[in-house]
Design a protein that fits this description.
Elements (H helix, E strand, L loop, with lengths): L2 H18 L12 H8 L3 H13 L6 H7 L11 E5 L8 H11 L5 E3 L5 H17 L3 H9 L1 E6 L1 H16 L8 E5 L5 H5 L9 H8 L2 H7 L14 H14 L2 E4 L2 E8 L10 E4 L18 E8 L2 E5 H15 L7 H12 L22 E6 L7 E3 L7 E5 L16 H7 L11 E6 L2 H8 L6 E6 L1 E6 L6 E6 L2 E6 L6 E7 L4 E4 L3
Parallel strand pairs: 1-2, 1-3, 3-4
Antiparallel strand pairs: 5-19, 6-8, 6-18, 7-8, 9-12, 9-16, 10-11, 10-15, 12-13, 13-14, 15-18, 16-17
Length: about 500
């Protein structure tokens, strides 16, 4: 093959790769910045009123902007949008991205989650628009009706925002704004499930792995090499993401309510997605066996992708603590994945048959599982396989950075096991098990499927200590250490939330 032919082959391969990654519009399709801003920008009096209401935590906090507006006619924007950004995500690039978003929309419509919490936006910002819409302000009514939300962060951040927007459903404050995503996390499984990873920051590593990196470096002026996070021409990529967020079709996503009941007097540090609640609402149709403590402590929360208990959560917990103790290690998703993989090898998961530590043994001796199957009101106890060291309840097809551990079972297998094809809005969780580290590794590279346990519409987990002092759990990538008692059980119950979250497709 001569050199000219080789160049043609390389160029063709590069173009095919770009198209496969969803970057066919990287060149040639220009989005006008001012036109995009015109479509996204709320009228000044509305965005200032909304921001003042949030800052003062008072629905009436922005009233002066409506009074100062006068009687001039103001039209609402075509696609009003607010952005929540976790500026500490995305390696060291979060603050740069935040400034870019402010340039493209406005400073008042971009909220750093360390300054403005999504629940404050729901209770004060949106409530301000609703108040004036009810008072006859047509622009406020149209803005509230059409507003969309973009979340720039990882799966935990997205789940936090979705959970807070769920309060609108609970209080009958429809419509609920649909959510688009700028992926800044390590796994980005929610982003993958709705087609936003093609805009994510993993494009660079794909170019590195195919040997085309040097070709692009020479031709790309806006290329950040630090931290392995931002793609080429990232400023244009952000514009395309915002444009897609205005036009993408609306999809539905199940969410799952979690109630955790544990013996009182025990200290626990749960993730921010679990909040203390005064009332424990465990299903009374399933009786609790054994003694019940005089005092119990209860938490509740919501997850959207997965809940897990066992060794995978222990590895995630250790990794999070390592990253918090040594923040200089958090250089971006690629670095995080390398460190995570290395760290998991030090935790004994690959040597569990040879280790006597009880926390590395199977879950069978400390875990009891009851489920309700679809269209069934009766609880059914299902056995925990002896070899399983992690149990995962999965809502989406993506887990562990885009893997599909449930696999794609054939129709004959589904019928034999009494399963149905899995979807994000089917009202079911897929429950599977992971054995020792070698088994989990083969599952993650999709050479085999995980150990299928059940499909369930509701789940109750019961754990009791014995030789174990702690169990490790995680929800949507947020791990915690759950103390266990030898005398009393800890219960965790999962039920589907009666309404669905609205997601914007990036496809």
């Amino acid at each position: 093959m001569d050199s000219s032919t080789a160049r043609i082959v390389v160029r063709s391969s590069m173009l095919d790769l770009i198209r496969a990654c969803g970057f066919s519009g990287l060149a040639g399709v220009r989005i006008d910045k001012e036109e995009l801003r015109r479509r996204l920008l709320m009228p000044q009096y509305l965005r200032l009123a909304m921001l003042d209401s949030i800052r003062k935590k008072d629905v009436d906090g922005g009233d002066q902007h409506f009074r100062l507006r006068g009687s001039d006619s103001v039209s609402s924007s075509e696609s009003p949008m607010v952005v929540f950004i976790n500026s500490r995500s995305g390696g060291r690039h979060g603050p740069v991205l935040k400034e870019r978003l402010k340039q493209l929309i406005s400073e008042e419509q971009v909220f750093d989650l360390h300054d403005v919490k999504p629940l404050e936006f729901v209770r004060y910002g949106l409530a301000c628009l609703e108040k004036w819409a009810n008072n006859g302000d047509l622009c406020a009514r149209e803005t509230r009706q059409n507003i969309r939300v973009v979340v720039a962060g990882g799966d935990g951040t997205i789940g936090w925002v979705l959970g807070c927007l769920g309060e609108l459903h609970q209080k009958g404050r429809e419509p609920v704004p649909p959510v688009a995503i700028i992926p800044l996390g390590t796994g980005n499984d929610l982003s993958r499930s709705f087609g936003w990873v093609r805009y994510s920051f993993e494009f660079k590593i794909l170019m590195l792995s195919t040997g085309f990196f040097s070709c692009f470096v020479n031709s790309c002026s806006e290329c950040s090499l630090q931290g392995g996070s931002f793609p080429f021409a990232w400023k244009s990529a952000i514009k395309r993401t915002l444009q897609r967020a205005t036009k993408g079709r609306i999809c539905r996503l199940d969410s799952w309510h979690v109630v955790l009941q544990m013996p009182g007097g025990v200290a626990v540090n749960p993730p921010h997605s679990l909040k203390v609640t005064e009332e424990c609402q465990l299903d009374q149709t399933l009786e609790i066996e054994g003694d019940v403590p005089d005092k119990v402590k209860c938490y509740e929360g919501v997850f959207f992708n997965y809940f897990s208990i066992g060794m995978d959560a222990k590895v995630a917990y250790g990794f999070h603590h390592l990253r918090n103790e040594k923040p200089y290690l958090a250089q971006g998703p690629i670095t995080n994945k390398i460190i995570y993989s290395s760290y998991s090898c030090t935790q004994g998961w690959f040597l569990t048959p040879c280790i006597s530590d009880p926390s590395l043994r199977g879950l069978k001796n400390v875990l009891r599982i009851h489920i309700k199957r679809v269209n069934c009101s009766e609880w059914e106890q299902i056995p925990v396989p002896k070899s399983v060291r992690a149990v995962v309840a999965l809502n989406l097809h993506n887990y562990g950075s885009g893997r599909n551990p449930w696999g794609n079972p054939k129709p004959e297998y589904l019928e034999k096991r009494g399963f149905v094809e899995a979807h994000a809005d089917d009202g079911l969780l897929e429950i599977f098990g992971l054995k020792q580290g070698w088994h989990a590794s083969f599952v993650m590279v999709e050479l085999i499927s995980a150990k299928h346990i059940a499909q369930a519409a509701s789940i109750r987990l019961e754990i009791r200590g014995g030789e174990w002092k702690d169990a490790y759990m995680q929800m949507d990538g947020e791990p915690w250490k759950q103390p266990m008692s030898k005398d009393y059980s800890t219960f965790l119950e999962i039920k589907r939330v009666p309404f669905e979250s609205l997601m914007i497709s990036g496809e």
